[in-house]
Amino acid sequence: ASRGLGDVYKRQILCYASYFAELARYFTRENVEAPQELLLLYVACSALTKGQVSLPLVRTIYEMRMMQIQGEALELFQCLDCGKKDDLKVYFSRGGFLCRECAARLISSGRGKGYTLSGDAVYALQFILTTSLSKLFSFRVSDAVEKELADFMKHYLEHYIPVSYTHLTLPTIR
Questions:
Q1: In whole angstroms, what is the distance from residue 44 CA to residue 155 CA?
Q2: Which residues, other chains included, contact 97 with Cβ-Cβ below 8 Å and sequence gap of 6+?
Q3: Which of 67, 78, 79, 145 could form a disulfide with 72 if both were Cys (CB 3.0 to 4.6 A apart)?
């Protein structure tokens, strides 16, 4: 019997859910309460099954919010040093935005390369960091912004998490 797109999509959802659980397990410890992590995991898995937000965007939202819960959120509203709100790049080594002038000091010391984000990507990340869980998976972005966010999260997680996860090896349609 041939498998339909529905079966492949269900397996993709399962892969994402497994990855979310694995990431939650990485950040939590046995016999230590983790109510925020558990609630985020529940809300993310619920979003996967509703299908209103693309799977890659659900992943980005989950990862960014999980990093915030773990105290590794980036400052994405203003320059960390001077408070400027324009001409900003993300410096993972510093934990967020730096303006061109403040970044020049970091670059001259050889400690960082900036990551540029579009205005739409910044807005999406700010929304993820500030909105309530009940509204967290209620927005969409263009395909270009979705790809930009996914690329950004890949670099962000590589900087902060020394582990690689394999659960997102997604099944292909045959």
A1: 21
A2: 74, 75, 76, 77, 78, 79, 80, 88, 89, 90, 91
A3: 67
For residue 161, the model assigns a pLDDT of 86
In sequence order, the 6+-apart residues with CB closer than 8 A to the CB of 105 are none
The lowest-confidence range among 22-26, 73-77, 119-123, 137-141 is: 22-26
User: Which amino acid, 154?
Assistant: K
Nearest alpha carbon to residue 131 among 53, 70, 40, 48: 40
pTM (2 d.p.): 0.89
The full 3-state SS of the chain, as one line of letters, equals CCCCHHHHHHHHHHHHHHHHHHHHHHHCCCCCCCHHHHHHHHHHHHHHHHCCCCHHHHHHHHHHHHHHHCCCCCECCCCCCCCCCCCEEEECCCCEEEEHHHHHHHHHCCCCCCECCCHHHHHHHHHHHHCCHHHCCCCCCCHHHHHHHHHHHHHHHHHHCCCCCCCCCCCCCC
Residue 121: pLDDT band (50, 70, 90) is: very high
Answer positive or negative: Cα dihedral of 81, 83, 84, 86: positive
